[in-house]
Amino acid sequence: MEVPELSPEQVRRLASLVAIGRRSGDTVTGLSAVRRAGALAYVFADASLAAGTLAEMGRLASRGAQVWRVACLADMTREFGREDLLVIGVRRGSLADGVARRLAATEPH
Prior knowledge:
Layout: H1 8-24, E1 27-29, H2 31-36, E2 40-46, H3 51-58, E3 66-70, H4 74-77, E4 87-91, H5 94-106
Parallel strand pairs: 2-3
Antiparallel strand pairs: 1-4, 2-4
Helix pairs in contact: 1-5
């Protein structure tokens, strides 16, 4: 499965939401936590992730997650004080709805 890449604008627009989700528990951080999490709406993976691991994250789409590659995930996670993460997930729910709205607002029309 081809994993699409977020634009820098999309990353910028999502950073504050994933930070809110980190505080509320709706943002799952780290590869192991994402692997164990159920009911993820989104997975964001750093572009430096090994090809096999990126393919594994891409397969989460079969469980309903939208999977996106991010050139530098630290640009998304810096707002909640983590620049060392390679993968984060967003649980289904109101935060994921907000992510969907922001992604839709930055898509070309």
